[in-house]
């Protein structure tokens, strides 16, 4: 199962750090600036909350720089937006953010997002699902096709694992919001479309035939009828 070891925030105070540390005692919580973020290496056990407005640069620019660098590609990044702005939301996702949350951050809001994230990571009783030549292991957070591991980001993995566990069933975009570990506060269904597009692009780039398709006006489905399971 995927672990979370570091929580990095570009704004906040001691009360925010203490609240998160008390609830998630095994996670290192820090307030950091843009320079220190660009000088560190991250893996997929790090979650970074980046404010839209920062003293040294725009938050969206920081996201782009992190995604363009090797050390920042694997971290989970949430953009902290100053309000419900449609253009900001789409620009944050296009820059490489995994999702977004409406700020300013406070202990209650951040704890709720963390709880949603942890619930979404609970694996099923049987961790390995097999569809044809593809296996999805929720304990190892690993997908293999013909024995080769696929380079999926966390949200891509979540979606594919969900479809693999529930094949031949249509899921609406609203259904899939929870799969991405998003709270009810942010329910922009276009976020689902962005991640579905990324997932399908990754699968096709590696010649994987098990690609969820769009069901017009409904949502998405992974067809497996006729495949060996």
From TrEMBL:
<dbReference type="InterPro" id="IPR039420">
    <property type="entry name" value="WalR-like"/>
</dbReference>
<feature type="domain" description="Response regulatory">
    <location>
        <begin position="6"/>
        <end position="118"/>
    </location>
</feature>
<dbReference type="InterPro" id="IPR036388">
    <property type="entry name" value="WH-like_DNA-bd_sf"/>
</dbReference>
<protein>
    <submittedName>
        <fullName>Response regulator transcription factor</fullName>
    </submittedName>
</protein>
<dbReference type="InterPro" id="IPR016032">
    <property type="entry name" value="Sig_transdc_resp-reg_C-effctor"/>
</dbReference>
<keyword id="KW-0238">DNA-binding</keyword>
<dbReference type="Pfam" id="PF00072">
    <property type="entry name" value="Response_reg"/>
</dbReference>
<feature type="DNA-binding region" description="OmpR/PhoB-type">
    <location>
        <begin position="126"/>
        <end position="224"/>
    </location>
</feature>
<dbReference type="InterPro" id="IPR001789">
    <property type="entry name" value="Sig_transdc_resp-reg_receiver"/>
</dbReference>
<dbReference type="Pfam" id="PF00486">
    <property type="entry name" value="Trans_reg_C"/>
</dbReference>
<keyword id="KW-0597">Phosphoprotein</keyword>
<dbReference type="InterPro" id="IPR001867">
    <property type="entry name" value="OmpR/PhoB-type_DNA-bd"/>
</dbReference>
<dbReference type="InterPro" id="IPR011006">
    <property type="entry name" value="CheY-like_superfamily"/>
</dbReference>
<keyword id="KW-0902">Two-component regulatory system</keyword>
<feature type="modified residue" description="4-aspartylphosphate">
    <location>
        <position position="51"/>
    </location>
</feature>
<feature type="domain" description="OmpR/PhoB-type">
    <location>
        <begin position="126"/>
        <end position="224"/>
    </location>
</feature>
